[in-house]
Specification:
Number of helices: 14
Helix content: over 70%
Structural class: mainly alpha
Order of helices and strands: HHHHHHHHHHHHHH
Number of strands: 0
Largest sheet: none
Length: 314
């Protein structure tokens, strides 16, 4: 409980710092005085941006945890299972078929293809005899590369490569009031994950173990895939692609606090939000007043942490 309180307090402090960092200089004093321009920037841009970062970090971390449980592999996540690339392909198909569609319609296309690619990946690794902890995510990366090639092919043929690359670059700078609210759809999967935490833990022990204790393994698997697909598709459509958060955060929390999913779930959610907030703040400071997109910062920091985890596991 003490660790949880400390983590919440740390998240509150970093969130507060995030609210006052940006190209437009605003101060708490002027907010209290209700200066019109600073009030507008604060409520239209800074608050939506910070909320989006927190919800994205929580959602991606929890999605990574679920995928690691149902695949029984610590190095599998939406980044290394083709799920993110499937979301990209769905978004591309949505842009081709209905160019002027809303974010919600684009999210539906992204969700369908995200779910399909996740199912294909799980079906594939089920038939692989050698389930080495590194070999399985390597298969996922190759699978994602194939899907990415298909997306690139369609993007080139329909002359939307630049639009696609711009859309997929994870970036919070364009988050404004009225353009981000769909990200609240990541909250229901979080609640359901907490309610199903023990079931996901049991599923992570293997199909035979789950069946022996009376658990419907296939149902848990389907629920897990749906929760992952909703979370990843909504975040990708709203912000863009963000790598490695769902991969490294559950591993770091597991190393420090153990593998009890029900107990570590809140910490994983908070650590995910903290990691993304820190990446975003660094991205805004390093070349101030310009900023580095969160997709690039998360990829660099997350990739470094992933490399450390790989070396440590060996």
């Amino acid at each position: 409980m003490f660790k949880l309180v400390i983590t919440i307090f740390l998240l509150f402090i970093i969130s507060f710092i995030s609210l006052f960092i940006g190209s437009k200089d605003i101060s708490l004093v002027n907010i209290i005085k209700k200066e019109p321009l600073e009030m507008m920037v604060f409520f239209v841009s800074r608050i939506p941006r910070t909320l989006s970062i927190i919800l994205s970090g929580i959602g991606l971390s929890i999605a990574g945890l679920i995928m690691q449980q149902i695949t029984q592999n610590r190095f599998v996540s939406p980044t290394t299972a083709g799920t993110l690339e499937g979301t990209k392909l769905g978004l591309l198909i949505g842009l081709i078929l209905i160019p002027s569609s809303s974010l919600f319609v684009k999210s539906i296309f992204a969700f369908i293809f995200s779910l399909l690619t996740t199912i294909i990946f799980l079906k594939t690794i089920k038939h692989i005899k050698i389930k080495n902890i590194v070999f399985v995510p390597l298969i996922g990366l190759m699978f994602g590369g194939i899907i990415n090639s298909i997306s690139t092919f369609f993007a080139i043929n329909f002359n939307i490569v630049q639009s696609m690359n711009t859309w997929m670059m994870g970036d919070f700078s364009g988050i404004l009031e009225g353009q981000y609210e769909i990200i609240y759809l990541t909250i229901p999967p979080l609640i359901i994950t907490y309610l199903y935490a023990n079931r996901f833990t049991a599923a992570g022990m293997g199909e035979d173990f789950a069946k022996n204790i009376g658990l419907n393994y296939q149902t848990v698997l389907i629920i897990g895939m749906i929760l992952i697909s909703i979370t990843v598709s909504v975040i990708t459509v709203t912000i863009g692609a963000i790598s490695f958060v769902g991969l490294v955060v559950p591993n770091i929390v597991s190393l420090i606090y153990g593998d009890n999913t029900k107990k570590t779930l809140p910490l994983i959610a908070l650590f995910g939000a903290l990691l993304l907030l820190i990446c975003d703040i660094i991205g805004r400071i390093i070349i101030f007043p310009f900023e580095i997109p969160i997709g690039l910062m998360a990829g660099c920091i997350g990739g470094l942490l992933f490399l450390i985890l790989l070396i440590r596991k060996r």
